[in-house]
Please model this.
Amino acid sequence: MVETITSSTPPPRESIDPLTWLRRNLFSPWYNAVLTLLALYLIFTLLNKAVPFLVSAQWAAVTTNLRILLVGQYPQSELWRVGSSFLYIPFLVGIAWGVWGAMMRPFALILIAVAVGTAATSFLVVSLSLGFQLWFAVSPFVVLAGYMIGRMDFVRPRFVLIAWLVSLVTTIFLLRGLGEDSAVLPYVPTMKWGGLIVTILIAQAGITVVLPIGVILALARQSELWFFKAAAIAYIEILRATPLLCLLFLMLILSPMFLPDITTPDRLLLAFIAIVLNNSAYMAENVRGGLQSVSRGQIEAAQALGMRNLYVTLFIVLPQALRATIPAIVGQFIILFKDVAIVALVGLMDLLGAAYAIILGQDQWRTADPEVFLFVAAVYWVFTYGMSSVSRGVEHRMRAGAD
Amino acid sequence: MSNQTIQEDQMVLCRGIEKWFGSLHVLRGISVSIKKGEVVVIFGPSGSGKSTFIRTLNRLEEHQRGEIVIDGTVLDNDVRNIEIVRSEIGMVFQNFNLFPHRTVIENISMAPRLVRHLTKRQAETNAMELLERVKIPEQANKYPGQLSGGEQQRVAIARALAMQPKIMMFDEPTSALDPEMIAEVLDVMKDLAESGMTMIVVTHEMGFAREVADRLMMFDEGLIVEEGTPEEIFDNPQHDRTKDFLSRVL
Model:
């Protein structure tokens, strides 16, 4: 005798008390219990060693040098330009949060916490001038303002892209300034830029340029025109094989030969070009992987509809290819961000360079390596986590549509 | 090759089409003439060259010997001729090949906008009409992944029709569908045939062939083994291979 269920019933609800949850997930079967205990032991010993160190460490090495770490040797009187233009960062974070929602929330909240924390504790820090304190105090509000704008219906991802591009150009312009005798915006040579702002600027400019170049190279490599194909392969294979350090060194030495005598190449630009050349070669291969993942049927269907090859590539193949390549692309961006440290070779001081300057240059902090480098590592982590968050947000949004 | 030998309503003319894949002689001399409004069904064992043949008609495959003339245009290496031919032939694939990153209505309106330069509004109005014709207007703003197989294939048919082709080609349109969805797609194809569209259909659906086809062609090993009306083929197959295949399929 079979009983038929005529209407659908809700699933049985399981409520588990914490003790049962622990027992089920962490302690059974027996090897799970062993691993749990092992993990607890490791965590405990780690904390045991780490916490006393963190508490009693010479954090003053970082706090008294915060200015160098953030802006290097940028002239103090002109720092207002740096402060005002770099407010674009909390704004971008806010608007990205608004556009991409939940994926970005942890990152945005972390940034706000960092800003608030820095502003609050900066009352205790002697070397942070009023300007800095103001910046950190204001930035959470800028994030929220960006968030509210990002949530508005008509704001779409391309707005974030536009904001990204505009902020990059205006910041470079503001930092650089006009001629030497300008009253409002005196020229500040790139050799004087330093610290975190250099890292951010070069990374942002690098990311902006490397992706399009990588896409073009990947397409050229698949081209039926022999010339483009050969040029792309040569570019990719040579620049992937040359270590970045070596590439920059070569450019430094060889550039006087290729440029007219009058001009001395801007060192920052040289480093930037080296970073772009190297990373775009890797990016091309990442994109090529994505291109190959688009099924042939897609191209055939588009061709059968009469679409020209350019349109097929632009509207059918690339969107699908890039979506598949996002993890690799963001991974390359993260690598690029860290590659910026190479500017040390040309005498510029990025975040890492500033850390070295403190350790090596200031006698009192010679033993403070762990503190300074931990700080630098933490800053790198914040930015790379930000990039992963955005990438997950973008992937999530693309998935919601296309699956 | 002189154009005057082609009759007014001759949509497809093929003479001696041969194709090799490497050393494999896939098409061994296909000669076909299809009139406007005719519904031609191509059937036969797999590997016989059926799909390859229809794909040479819109240059998804390139023939190495022979001539193909589609509605007066000679199909050769001239890109302009290829574009003309492709805009006159609509194709429906076994695997649908819908664009997954665009909605249904965007899938249908994309080519008319890009190739025939329709405005978004015109293209979308036409798209909605076509969706009505294939009986799924409510799916307009969904993504292909959210539709069933039968619905996706009907969208694919609408997408091909959006370019107002003179000839519609179907490459095993129902082979990837669950049985209960085959009927809805075949119904759309029957309607299309009744409206006077010139159709070339590669399929195993013999019921459809008997009902709708004007002519059947049996392919085997790169050649047309037998050709005739449904009555001739089903009731009185001449060739051994035809009898053999039909006995296994029917």
Chain B has nine helices and ten strands. Chain B has a mean pLDDT of 92. Chain B touches chain A at residues 58, 60, 83, 86-87, 89-91, 93, 95, 97-101, 110-111, 114-115, 143, 145, 156, 159-160, 163 (CB under 8 Å). The two ends of chain B are 41 Å apart (CA to CA).
